[in-house]
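hi!! sorry for the late reply, been swamped w classes. u asked for the two structures so here they r. pasted raw, havent cleaned anything up. first the sequence of the first protein and right below it the tokens
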Amino acid sequence: MAEPILPDNDEPALEAALMDVAILLATGGRERTAGEFAELYQSAAFRLTCVLPSGPGFRLVEGEAM
């Protein structure tokens, strides 16, 4: 899956913040940090295996079934 990933620290992330607002308004969803994706994957019996840069503002998020 390709997702915008928020930084785990307080580093500014304008593109991700703007995307967060757009997704919130359009779908009620939100952006997540890599740590939050790991928790989400774990709750669905998956393990986050890799987060790779894929272009401006997006990362490829990879996981596998546990």
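now the second protein. again sequence first, tokens right under
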Amino acid sequence: MAGYIQEYVDYVGQIGGDQQYEERVDFSDWVPEGFGTSDVIAYDLATATLHVIDLKYGKGHRVEAQNNTQGVLYGLGAYSDWGMIYPIKAVRVHIHQPRLDHISTWDLTTDELLRWGETLREGANKCLEPDALRVPGEAQCLFCKAKATCPALLRHAESVLMADFDDFEQLAVDTLTSEKLAMSWITKS
């Protein structure tokens, strides 16, 4: 573990500039009550670039910086705070996954970052509406904290499971085992 973390520390060290670690970022100007903790925020005075660096230690899911919503949100929060201190022309989102030997970066101008912020604000506000559309799926539910109690995910899971039984009704009763007959009664109740 120490070796992988050292790779990350070395990577962050190469970026240089004014750095803050485990920095709380508040992006509630774009997402109501939105905040997080950025692993590293660094500012490069020579290029007026704000760096938002995220360590992903897991190795089961490769994460890209490009179009990374978490990276944008952390960038917005960092921009909101650091923009009062420094002129910021660009934001670079970094994802470092040492256990996958993967580093990904994505550069945005501040105008691009703020446009992303407006798009995310609209989406966040729609999500807060009582009748908001819920579209469950593998990618969007992967890290969702509400999936254990999400009615839309339950309906989705039921439809996926029942898809395997599309021809269930067409089976002749005399070819079914007692277990399959019992299952038929349970699913129709």
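hope this helps!! also noticed smth abt the second:
The chain has two domains: 2-133, 149-188.
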